[in-house]
Design a protein that fits this description.
globular; 2 helices; alpha+beta; 5-stranded mixed sheet; YaeB-like fold
Length: 95
């Protein structure tokens, strides 16, 4: 399936990068962002690995974050809708 990112998920990824750089430095931040992107690629390759949470929405954990994924069989697209820290209440932030 094709991988896409929502505008909100892109903004969240940028904020995670900024926060990671300020706390742990560029090298650690780059590795963390790469891990999030790799998790997104893996779920696009095999969406069934993500847990269904509501309708077409699925959830996959990537280190200390959850990727909220929208799977469209019609367009054969997996969209990363949100990137939420594991400490957050997921239901409050669903698209």
């Amino acid at each position: 399936m094709r991988l896409a990112w929502s505008h909100l998920a892109i903004a969240e990824l940028k904020e995670i990068r900024r926060t990671s750089i300020s706390r742990w430095g560029r090298a650690v931040a780059a590795g963390y962002i790469a891990d999030l992107r790799d998790a997104a690629k893996r779920v696009a390759e095999c969406p069934d690995t993500a847990r269904t949470i509501q309708g077409h929405l699925r959830l996959v954990r990537a280190r200390s974050h959850y990727l909220i994924v929208y799977v469209s069989e019609d367009t054969r697209t997996v969209t990363i809708a949100r990137i939420l820290h594991t400490a957050m209440e997921i239901e409050r932030h669903l698209p």
